[in-house]
Structures are given as structure tokens and as C-alpha cells.
Automatic annotation (TrEMBL):
Pfam families: Abhydrolase_1 (PF00561). It comes from the Bacteria. Residues 140-334 form the AB hydrolase-1 domain. Keywords: Hydrolase. The keyword Hydrolase applies. InterPro entries: AB_hydrolase_1, AB_hydrolase_fold. One of its GO terms (molecular function) is hydrolase activity. Transmembrane segments: none annotated. Gene3D superfamilies: alpha/beta hydrolase. This is Alpha/beta hydrolase.
């Protein structure tokens, strides 16, 4: 297959967090690397992030670079306070830019992508079904993680379809329009939205691919859903709560776990108030978590996060499993792979891949080399279906 994705590890900003997300703008959202490099160091806080990305989107729109215009705006929303008129306007405009200018990709204009709304609880799950041009090898069920939007994955999904697979890609509760338009928040019982999608299409014998937090969600679904025969965790995350605790200093972690076990809500809130005053990222992450998980405050979120784990059902994961990790993952501690491999004792087969910095695979979700990962997934799946 031809090399149609950018690859690389760019230094756009001195903050590891902003730098990673700017790499995401370029590598997965069609940003121009020279353009982002020229403006990246202007970003010092969430306000400047929003301003710079909006300005880049406007410039791309003026030159009719619609993929970049939508991508910049999509990522401008990332650090905005969620569920406000301002953030909703930015999300809606990014969607408008994308669907107005890429209508040729969708079935009404003869494209391969069929858009559906899958009924689920009180709302709907946006879903794309992408049909391969030739014979169908099988079906891949694809979803993202904590902040995923379907549109960000367009190139990746089309590439998988060109590999001979029917693609069913969806936004589940807590993601994309399922959250923003239907008000559906994350559920640890990911087999429920997965089951709704499989029922809607009558799909059987599928490979599930979960990206980022989706790595944990896909595993949980696989434990409970027999129509899933192969599992790809494109990020090794056995437990949200475990990952949240792993990145805390030992003293804070010990204190926090004790307060949570004793149900000391007010003391947990006071601790996080202090952390939020020191670090705006804490404040933003709490706001986003409360919105996506349907919780009132950080105490409720941390207690709810405990349910997002594969540990109680790991022995029911009997499928072929591919784990894909990253040594320099800013979001998820690399050492968690040991815990997950030990939990997966019942897997039919288990393969573990760790692309390194030499091929730009070291960052979260191997952001710097998506084609390498897509080929890895296709080759692994093809072998199993022979």
C-alpha cells in the first residue's frame, strides 16, 4: 500500500501536553506542519490555544484547504470549557466545514461511507459503515476513546476499508455527537453500545479496534459480546482509575486513595481545588470528565472511574488479542502493559507491539506513524482469517 500519511515527531511547543496535541493537529487532523511550527510557540495557555487554532482554521478556510480548516477548528474545541454556547458553536462549525466540503466521500454522492444514527437509550449513536470496493475479507468495528470524534479518523477508516474490510465506526456514549447532541455519557458497560451497533447492522464475527481509552472499552465489550472474535487495543489501559492514580506523586496518591476509600468527599474536593489552582490542566480535565461521564465533581468522577476496568471480566476475554503500546506515552503509563498481559490469561492468542522512536511510534496512540499501526492491524487480522 502507498504511503499516504504524514509521519514524524515534531517539536512545536515546549509544553509536552500542547506539543503532543499540536502533533495530533498535524498528523491526524490535516494541519500544515510549517504553519503550526510558525504559530505553535504562541500557545501558553488554553486561551491562546483556542485563539491560535481558530486563526489557523480561518486562514485555511480562506485558501479553501477544507480538511485543515475543519481539523484546526475541531482541535480548537479541545481545550475549551465543554458544554458552553462557545464550545458548541466551534464544534458545529467544524462539523459544517467537514460535511459540506467532503460530501463526495458519503453515499448520497456515490462515496463509500454510509452515515447512520443507531438508536440507543434516550438518543442515537452516530455510525459510519464503509464498504470495501472489492471482496470483503471481514468486518472491523472501530471506536475511539475519551475525546474522540469520528471525523478525526476519516483517513484511517478509509485506509482500513481499502484493505478489504467493511468498517463499522461509531461514537459511543461520552463521545462526539452521542455526547454533544444526545447527552449520552460514558458507560463502563461498553458491550451495550457495541451490541446496539452490531444488532443494527446484523454483524457477526467482527474484529473490534479501540483507540486510547477505547483500548479498555473494547476489552470490556469483548468479554461480554461473543460476536467479537478478535480484539485490538490501540493503547494498553487495563483501568482508568489505575492510570489516574499512576500519574500522581506517591504522597498525593496515597492520600487520595485513602480519602476515596473513606468516602471523604469534601476532603477530596479540597485537595483537587488546591491542585487546580496550581495547574489549569487539572481544572480543565475535571470539567471535561464531569461532562463526558455525567458526574457532578471530581469525587464522583474518581469513584465512577473505578468501574472502568477489565479486571473483573478479564478471564472472559477468550479472543485473539493484539495490544499496541508506546514507551513515551504522555497519557497512559507504559508500565501498565505488565498488568494487562497478566490479566489476559484466557486469550486465545496474545501479541504485543511497541513501535519505537526510530519510526515515530513512541507517543500516545503511536501518533507519529498511523500507517505503521494500520498495516500492523491489517496484517495481524489477515493472518488470523487465513
Amino acid at each position: 500500500m502507498s504511503n499516504e500519511f504524514l509521519s514524524g515527531s515534531y517539536q512545536f511547543n515546549n509544553s509536552p501536553l500542547y506539543n503532543f496535541q499540536l502533533n495530533r493537529v498535524v498528523l491526524w487532523n490535516h494541519g500544515d506542519p510549517a504553519e503550526v511550527a510558525a504559530r505553535g510557540k504562541e500557545i501558553t495557555d488554553f486561551a491562546s490555544w483556542e485563539r491560535v487554532l481558530k486563526e489557523l482554521s480561518y486562514q485555511a478556510e480562506r485558501r479553501k484547504d477544507w480538511a485543515a480548516a475543519a481539523g484546526y477548528l475541531r482541535m480548537a474545541e479541545f481545550f475549551m470549557v465543554p458544554d458552553t454556547p462557545e464550545s458548541r458553536d466551534v464544534y458545529d462549525r467544524a462539523q459544517e466545514l467537514f460535511y459540506a466540503n467532503f460530501a463526495h466521500l458519503f453515499s448520497p454522492q456515490g462515496g463509500p461511507i454510509h452515515r447512520d444514527e443507531v438508536p440507543y437509550e434516550s438518543g442515537t449513536l452516530p455510525c459510519w459503515r464503509i464498504t470495501p470496493s472489492g471482496d470483503k475479507r471481514g468486518t472491523i468495528l472501530f471506536h475511539g476513546g475519551n475525546d474522540s470524534l469520528l471525523e478525526e479518523f476519516t483517513d484511517l477508516l478509509l485506509y482500513l476499508a481499502r484493505g478489504g474490510y467493511e468498517i463499522l465506526a461509531f461514537e459511543g456514549p461520552g463521545q462526539g455527537a452521542a455526547l454533544r447532541k444526545s447527552g449520552l455519557t460514558f458507560t463502563p458497560e461498553w458491550e451495550k453500545p457495541v451490541g446496539a451497533v452490531l444488532d443494527f447492522y446484523g454483524a457477526e464475527d467482527v474484529t473490534i479496534v479501540g483507540v486510547s481509552l477505547g483500548g479498555e472499552l473494547a476489552m470490556r465489550a469483548a468479554a461480554m459480546e461473543p460476536r467479537i472474535r478478535r480484539v485490538v487495543a490501540w493503547c494498553v489501559l487495563p483501568s482508568i482509575y489505575g492510570a489516574l492514580m499512576a500519574d500522581k506523586p506517591a504522597e498525593i496518591r496515597t492520600t487520595l486513595e485513602q480519602l476515596l476509600s473513606e468516602k471523604q468527599r469534601e476532603k477530596v474536593l479540597a485537595l483537587y481545588t488546591g491542585l487546580s489552582e496550581q495547574n489549569p490542566l487539572f481544572r480543565w480535565s475535571i470539567q471535561h470528565a464531569n461532562y463526558a461521564y455525567g458526574t457532578a465533581d471530581v469525587y464522583e468522577y474518581l469513584q465512577r472511574a473505578k468501574a472502568f476496568t477489565i479486571e473483573p471480566v478479564a478471564d472472559q476475554i477468550t479472543q485473539d488479542v493484539l495490544l499496541i503500546s508506546a514507551r513515551e506515552d504522555l497519557m497512559v503509563g507504559f508500565d501498565l502493559y505488565k498488568e494487562e498481559i497478566d490479566l489476559l490469561k484466557s486469550a486465545r492468542t496474545l501479541e504485543f507491539a511497541v513501535p519505537g522512536a526510530a519510526i515515530h511510534g513512541q507517543a500516545h496512540c503511536n501518533m507519529g506513524n498511523p500507517q505503521y499501526i494500520l498495516d500492523l492491524i491489517l496484517n495481524w487480522n489477515n493472518r488470523l482469517l487465513q
